[in-house]
Amino acid sequence: MSSYTEESGKPDPDQFLPVITETQVETHEVSFKVVPKRRNIFQGMKFIFLNEKQFKKMNLAVELGGGLPVLLEEKWQKDTMLVEKGSVVMQCEPNQCTQMMSQDSNNWVLHVQAFLRKHKKHMIQDAEIGFAVLYCSTEKHCNPNKDSGKY
Which sequence ranges are marked TM in the entry (predicted)? Predict the structure, then answer.
C-alpha cells in the first residue's frame, strides 16, 4: 500500500510468486509468472464434460484459457464430435460417474469410453487443465492422443 500512496511505483509481482512444491511438476519448466499465451492456451479446443458437477467446477478455467466448455450428459446425435480435432472429453470422477448418475447416464459414459478407445483416444483428467496452463502447452496435457501415463 505504501508504494501506492508514496507514488514510488508498483510492486514487482515476481517478489510474490509462490514456491513450486508439487511433485509432478518440473520446476525448471514452469512458472507462475504472467504469460500472455495462457489467455488462449485452449483456443480452438472444445472440452466435453459428461456431468454437470464437473462442468460447473471446471468450465471457468476452460473459458479463461480461450476454450469452449460443453456439457453433454446424454446421448448426442453425432458421436463424431467426441473425436474431432480439438475435442477433449473430460474423465468423470469414478464416484461421480457411478453413484450420482442415472443408469442411462452411466451407460452414456461407458459408450463414450468405448468410442474413444475405438478411435485410439482417451479421456482427460481435471488436473491436466491446470498442468496445461502451468506448462503453457497442450502437447502433453489435455491431449487425447497422448497417453498421459507416458510422460
Answer: none
Distance CA 145, CA 151 (A): 13
- Please report where in the chains the cell 457411478 appears, as a residue: 98
User: Which residues, including other chains, have CB under 8 Å from residue 142's CB and lie 6 or more apart?
Assistant: 42, 45, 88, 124, 128, 129, 131, 132
Which amino acid appears at position 90 of this protein?
Answer: M
Single pTM value for the model: 0.80
Nearest to 79 by CA among 51, 106, 108: 108
Rounded CA separation 144/140 (Å): 9
- Write the pLDDT tens digit of every residue in 103-121: 777 888 889 999 999 999 9
Walk along the chain (151 residues) in steps of 10 and give the mean pLDDT of each run: 64 73 70 84 96 93 97 81 95 66 81 94 94 92 79 43
Per-residue CA distances from 140 to 22, 68, 121, 145 (Å): 17, 19, 13, 9
* Spatial separation of the C-alpha atoms in residues 151 and 148, rounded to whole Å: 6
